[in-house]
Write a structure and sequence with these properties.
alpha+beta; globular; 6-stranded mixed sheet; 4-stranded antiparallel sheet
Length: 329
């Protein structure tokens, strides 16, 4: 089995951002730290703890955690400092505040977290600070399903547009061949065709309807799609909040999964995700060109679920963490 140093690699990526931030930007220099933005309550604390422990033990970087809902209470930005350093005031310490070099978002991905006006103020507050964001709001949106759809709709010109003039221009067809078709549900010709397909009880069987959000438990499959769409009535905004994706058909595989205290055996599906570290400097600050400081693979996550399961999220309780076994074919 291949080594999977994801904890070490992700920690290393965060400490590279921490070092790239440089010295304190406060008028009275403050100690520096990395701040994890987390949910409250937090269900994924164990991998977060592993990353923070590695940062402190291997890189000697102070790490703090703050609930997304507490951002405006325990952080501040000096209004008279054009560098806009973000200061974290630990509620349990009476010492001087820490200056945040890097924000690691483990919260702020679900619409439910933005139900109150202060949540939007908190996100804007962080985005306007000097802290390096993982991810920034632009990077966050770039990973949305809408952007995936724009690149993967068969009639889309954007993949060619973004890769032309790069070393990868000659690989456009090979990259596109790895995509399954993804369609919008809007007023465009591709969107109208997708809506008609999604409402057809026969043709919809090979598709999944996905909302513009992260996490498992939100997808609609096959023959469940038409009644779901009809329940929306003629609300175009609700339609635009979804994409229609052709189902991926992986090869048959038999294995056993330990989940909920039981060993379950049978046909399974694996989903391999590759972690990465990417750090760049914006061109409008450092000259006319963006400077790519770091861009590399950082381990992987293999999730496995029963073939009949319509969801695959581990945290949502549908899948299990697995290990890769490489074989000759």
């Amino acid at each position: 089995m291949p080594a999977n140093p994801s904890i070490e690699e992700i920690s290393d990526g965060l400490q590279i951002a921490h070092r790239a931030y440089g010295r304190s930007k406060s008028r009275h220099p403050s100690p520096l730290c990395i701040l994890f933005v987390v949910q409250d309550p937090e269900n994924n604390i164990f991998d977060q703890y592993a990353i923070s422990s590695c940062l402190q033990a291997s890189h000697r970087v102070p790490v703090y955690r703050i609930a997304f809902a507490s951002i405006l209470t325990h952080t501040s930005i000096a209004t008279d400092n054009p560098s806009r350093p973000l200061l974290y005031h630990p509620p349990y310490l009476s010492t001087a505040p820490y200056e945040v070099t890097t924000l690691y978002f483990r919260a702020g991905y679900s619409p439910s977290e933005y139900s109150l006006p202060n949540a939007w103020k908190a996100r804007l507050h962080l985005e306007r600070s000097a802290a390096i964001k993982c991810p920034s709001i632009l990077t966050h949106l770039a990973g949305s399903k809408k952007v995936q759809q724009i690149l993967a709709t068969p009639s889309s010109p954007y993949l060619d547009r973004f890769l032309s003039g790069t070393p990868y221009a000659g690989y456009v067809d090979r990259i596109r061949a790895t995509f399954v078709a993804i369609y919008p549900l809007d007023s465009t010709p591709a969107g109208q065709e997708a809506i008609a397909l999604a409402k057809d009880l026969e043709r919809c069987k090979g598709y999944v309807l996905k909302p513009q959000r992260e996490g498992g438990g939100n997808n609609i499959y096959g023959t469940k799609i038409p009644p779901f769409l009809f329940s929306m009535g003629d609300d175009e905004k609700k339609y635009r909040g979804h994409i229609l994706m052709k189902l991926i058909e992986p090869p048959d595989l038999t294995n056993s999964i330990f989940r909920n205290g039981e060993v379950q055996s049978g046909e399974v599906i694996g989903e391999l995700g590759i972690y990465g570290v990417c750090l760049w400097r914006n061109g409008h600050v450092y000259g006319s060109q963006h400077i790519l400081e770091e861009n590399r693979e950082a381990g992987f996550l293999l999730r496995t679920k029963g073939r009949k399961s319509e969801e695959g999220g581990v945290a949502a309780g549908f899948g299990a963490v697995d290990s890769v076994c490489l074989v000759d074919v």
